[in-house]
Design brief:
Bound molecules: guanosine-5'-monophosphate
CATH topology: Rossmann fold
Distance between the termini: 22 Å
Number of helices: 7
Number of strands: 9
Number of domains: 1
Helix content: 40-55%
Shape: globular
Length: about 200
Amino acid sequence: MSKNSFIVIITAPSGSGKTSIYKRVLDKNRNLKFSVSYTTRKKRTVEMPGKDYFFISREQFEAKRERGEFIEWASVHGDLYGTDRKQVENILNHGNICILDVDVQGALNVMKIFPDAVTIFIQPPSLEELEKRLRKRGTESAEEVRTRLQDAKIELEYKKYFNYIIVNEKLESAIMRLNEIIAHENEKEGKNAANL
Ligand code: 5GP
């Protein structure tokens, strides 16, 4: 059981290996719950609707946004992404730790609402390595890879606003470090997210 309920924001340039890192940590800790975002992006073949994202149309996204159902939303690499208010509320109300995978804009917005959120920036070893990983992944077109690399340069400038930086040089070490950070934060007294 988690000692406290709080939010952990995980941000990284696309292709930094962020998903592989937090998925492994989520698998091992039952008190950690992932908030599944909504997006207008096309589903990748490996992705499961409702597990990785809820894939919806732009119209559905805008209607949901109008109803105030997102804590935050952002346009990232040309698509819309949003954090669902109900899911975050549910996770925290059950005494669990809520993992949010959001871009830098989303992270800065969530920090304003939850100043106690633990913020983690996952950094690739270098931009060259990031480009290599993105090309190897092969889920984006050459044009999309270019956009993501351009965006990565801007995103890296924001890492100073985060509590922790994990350089993803070796996957196993990065997983260990994320585990340590969450365990350390969970041990702190009175770490509870404010109500929404
Ligand atoms: P991808 O398309 O590679 O899954 O994600 C692209 C970017 O969108 C990543 O930086 C990811 O963190 C971000 N993202 C995913 N869900 C959300 C969300 O709900 N809100 C915001 N602001 N960004 C998100």
